[in-house]
Amino acid sequence: MVLQSLKNCLWLSCVLRTPKAFFWSTASGGLIIQSVSNDVYQNLAVEDWIHDHMDLEKQQVLFLWRNSPAVVIGRHQNPWQECNLKLLRENNIKLARRRSGGGTVYHDLGNINLTFFTTRKKYERMKNLKLIVKALKALQPQLDVHVTDRYDILLDRQYKISGTAAKLGRTSAYHHCTLLCNTDKFVLSSVLRSPYKGLKSNATPSVPALVKNLFEKDPSLTSEMLLDAIAKEYAMQHQIDHHINLLNPADETLLPGISHKTKELQTWEWVYGKTPKFSVSTCLNMAYKDSVLDVKVNMDVKHGRIEVCNIDLPEQWLPPGLSSELVKSLTGSKFCPNETTTLVTTLLRVCPQDDELHSRWSLLCENMIMLM
Amino acid sequence: VCIHRVRSCSSIRFIKSKYVCVFDKSALKFSHQQRLFRTSAVSCGQIVQFKLSDIGEGITEVTVKEWYIKEGDSVSQFDSICEVQSDKASVTITSRYDGVIRKLHYSIDDIAFVGKPLVDIEIDASKGVSPEEDVVETPPMSHEEHTHQEIKGHKTLATPAVRRLAMENNIKLSEIVGTGKDNRILKEDILNYLAKQTGAILPPSPKAEIVPPPRKTETVPAAPRDKAQKIPVPVSRPIAFSGKDKTEPVTGFQKAMVKTMSAALKIPHFGYCDEIDLTQLVQLREELKPLAELRGVKLSFMPFFIKAASLGLLQYPILNASLDENCQNVTYKASHNIGVAMDTEQGLIVPNVKNVQVCSVFDIAVELNRLQSLGSAGQLGTSDLTGGTFTLSNIGTIGGTYAKAVILPPEVAIGALGKIQVLPRFNGKGEVFKAQIMNVSWSADHRIIDGATMARFSNLWKSYLENPASMLLDLK
């Protein structure tokens, strides 16, 4: 696939020099593009770009992409509810929020993403999913795959191999879905398990499902083969050339404004700040010296920031001024371990230099930070 | 499109006359005129119930997830009104009309019904109700006219009023970059474009930053430190037309700064500065860099500065002390936990290297690498950020020579290191030679530290760095 990509790349680089050969301008009814990048933010930005800028009236688009390890949550979801953020941070797994609805998915290079772009009027998810099933069966007729009415694709009537989401705008729409070829299921299940307790929110919840890789059913299947089979079926149905055009999501000349879109998808305000309002109501069990302290904590988080904060400490455990200082500092701050760490360590500078006090403070703050 | 224009001609004739006046006056009046135009256009008009249109796939109900506007806001055609969700599909509902939002029929998380009213919009009576079809224009296929590559099928979104304005001024909409939602072209974009053509000067928006504001912050370089002066690259942002002040609450990192600096104000600072000849150290580091790299560690100058400081603190322990609140007791700290000021995306953080008094220069370099990568990933823990006893701030990596650093309580001293410059100096024989000179600016708490102590500490620190071999004698 690498060789084929290189060949395509070289061919395209020669071809792109002449404006006439611009692949956007083909007069055919469809266009197949594949991203050369594995960066989830860049690829999501391409989706945004095509949705905002391309006229899909005469030409529909199929976009093929894969990402290095990332968790992608739906537009209206709560990342704290959906995944283990601590695990993500420790393992350098990216967190992205897409613009389409639906649930949370884990991406790695063993998962392929397919986006079907059409006009708003021609938006039809079943049709796209049936296309995929047809392509899979053409590749491997023994496969028992079918589409459910929840827009999932199931293998052997049991295992989910594809999840779907969609975005509708004023004139265009897109339907994208995943396809599990050879994803690390161990990492998938660990990161998609949230350790955060006491969260209450109206964010869209994900529906957990039993998953399986196509590779497990038939080890001869590779991501490249699957991509190719789907592209072939799409080409047939749209009566176009079975040719996959490679696209570099960092190309600002080809996609003006794409770097701005990419940056926006990475901002804290988008990834965390767009979380619908939620509350945290939990009890910290802090082991201190020979006893265990139960500390009730209640927080309301809006736009990713702590709107209201209540910490129920035993009387005189901390000097009264200090606990109210903590609450005051946290109010208005991001519900974020980094920001909280900075705030609490700073507060320590301005309070009496007492080892006992410091260890109590550190204990409380460490526990608070664990909630984020 | 032709028919549409004829129909709306009569209703927007008054707009034309207003614009003709505007262009005769100075460009600086644009925003004022424009605002007047807006408010006068939105007077008592008819209230239209904007219904939720068909989503497709036979869907009859959706959940309202986010409102982009609130009651009383002005909207233009194609502005996003809200986001609704239905069965894994997120739908952006855009306005069909120009007007003012008078009523939202649903709250967040309510179920909304297709065909039922979503919002009530008050439309300006003179403008009338815009046609229901989408008014979208595609630019003509003319490769010859454009020297740069153009994307065909590029939609140009603009309201009829904007399109008229462009037409009157012979502007191709395809030449304008839209700054509105979905890249639609706004009246401001046309006016900006015109201003550029006529050379008129528009008042810059306070949002446009040209040079990042200078801060007394510094970076601990991960890359081999060359202390080369980097010219701040102007941060170019599209200059917005409106010149409004923006007020934000002080939160997070800024809040932390406010607290620390307010406390630091109570400390009577005095400063002491000096110049260090790092010629020998520069050479030594060049020799040791590859050795460190073999061990997988980037070696900057900081580990040397930090170790030398610790050796100095052994002789002048009062600089590694802490004064209690009532200034009754001085606590001499046993550990030399030397803080290194770090400049991150969010702001200034000061993690510290613990127990430098028992660390080798290499150990310090390893620890610095760890703190630096955690710092840039925003993953420093509380233990890394607490317990500091003395701080060094390497502002020189960004620039500057002398600085007045602010002591971080509960510490009593801090050093700010300027950039290394190649300057001519005289040697013992009276000859001029090329010297690598760095300036250091110390600040100390004058309640318990006197000038002489600071000076002697600085001299000792300086001697270790100017003659690195002498550090060998005192290394523990």
Which keywords apply here?
heterodimer, A: 372 residues, alpha+beta, BirA Bifunctional Protein, domain 2, Enolase-like, domain 1, 2 domains, six-stranded mixed beta sheet, elongated, B: 476 residues, OB fold (Dihydrolipoamide Acetyltransferase, E2P), Dihydrolipoamide Transferase, Chloramphenicol Acetyltransferase, seven-stranded mixed beta sheet, four-stranded antiparallel beta sheet, disordered N terminus, lipoyltransferase activity (chain A), BPL_LPL_catalytic (chain A)
Class computed from helices, strands and strand pairing of chain A: alpha+beta
User: How many distinct beta strands of chain B?
Assistant: 21
Q: Given the C-alpha coordinates, what overall shape of chain B results?
A: elongated
Class inferred from helices and paired strands of chain B: alpha+beta
Can you write the helix and strand succession of chain A as a string?
Answer: HEHEEHHEEEHEEEEEHEHHEHHEEEHHH
Write the CATH homologous superfamily of the largest domain in chain A.
Answer: Bira Bifunctional Protein, Domain 2
Low-confidence stretches of chain B: 1-43, 130-154, 199-229
Domain Peripheral subunit-binding (PSBD) (chain B): 157-194
Enzyme class (chain B): transferase
Subcellular location (chain B): Mitochondrion matrix
Cofactor (chain B): (R)-lipoate
Q: How does this model look, in words?
A:
Chain A has two domains: 29-272, Bira Bifunctional Protein, Domain 2 (BirA Bifunctional Protein, domain 2); 278-371, Enolase-like, domain 1 (2-Layer Sandwich). Mean pLDDT of chain A is 88; it is low at 6-22. By secondary structure, chain A is of the alpha+beta class. Chain A starts with a helix and ends with a helix. Chain A contains 13 helices and 16 strands. With 476 residues, chain B is of the alpha+beta class. Among the domains of chain B are: 46-123, RNA polymerase II/Efflux pump adaptor protein, barrel-sandwich hybrid domain (OB fold (Dihydrolipoamide Acetyltransferase, E2P)); 160-196, E3-binding domain (Dihydrolipoamide Transferase), CATH 4.10.320; 269-473, Chloramphenicol acetyltransferase-like domain (Chloramphenicol Acetyltransferase). Helices cover 29% and strands 21% of the residues of chain B. Chain B has helices at 2-9, 13-24, 30-41, 160-168, 187-198, 252-264, 279-294, 302-315, 361-377, 382-385, 451-466, 469-474; strands at residues 46-51, 61-67, 74-75, 80-86, 89-94, 99-104, 111-113, 117-123, 136-137, 156-157, 269-277, 321-323, 330-332, 338-340, 342-343, 348-349, 352-353, 390-393, 413-417, 421-426, 432-445. In chain B, the strands form six sheets. In chain B, strands 11, 14, 17, 18, 19, 20 and 21 form a seven-stranded mixed sheet that branches. Chain B has a four-stranded antiparallel sheet with strand order 1-8-6-3, with no helix packed on it. In chain B, strands 5-4-2-7 form a four-stranded antiparallel sheet, with no helix packed on it. In chain B, strand 12 and strand 13 form a beta hairpin. Chain B is elongated and about 90 Å long. Chains A and B meet through strand 10, helix 12 and helix 13 of A and strand 4, strand 5, helix 6 and helix 10 of B.
